[in-house]
Each structure stands twice: as structure tokens, then as C-alpha cells.
EF-hand domain-containing protein
Amino acid sequence: MAFMRGHLLPQKEMTAGEFRAWLRQFDADGDGRISREELQRALRSLHTWFAWWKARAAMKEADVNRNGVIEEEEEEEMGRLIAYANERLRIKIYEYDSC
């Protein structure tokens, strides 16, 4: 991972654990949940075009219980967010370390 303006930036390939660690940087209130606004800030840090739209689409895809946040402990929600990042954000996320 690389640094930019106080945040770690993900590489094009990473493990699921590294992806989760990167997302935690944007959990402003430290509750272990990522809101749409926090996800939008994360996407903006990648200089993603239409970050607001992609954050909205990611929430629609990943927020299974429709409570407005993606909970880190909720494996299904994180799995769906990782799948979205793989498919739509072009970040290759592996489930396990290749070592």
C-alpha cells in the first residue's frame, strides 16, 4: 500500500484483510461500520470518477439488511463489498494471502 495525504492507498492487488484495513481509515466515528458518506470519502481518495454514485451503488449492492451501513463483522456484507470492488473498481482482492 502507498501513502497519500494521510491515508494508505490500496494497490491494484491486495488481500481481503488489507482491503478491510484500508476501509477502516475512513470509519470516521470508529464504530466498525462504513456509511455511504465514509465509503464515498474512501473512493474519492482513489481519485475515482463519480465517487458519490459508486458509493451509492456499492451500498445498494452490499447492504443486505438495509440499515444504511456496511458492517465489518457482517461477513455477507463485506463479501458483497469486496465483490463490488473486484468487479466495478478494478481492484483485485484475494481472500487469503498467497504466501
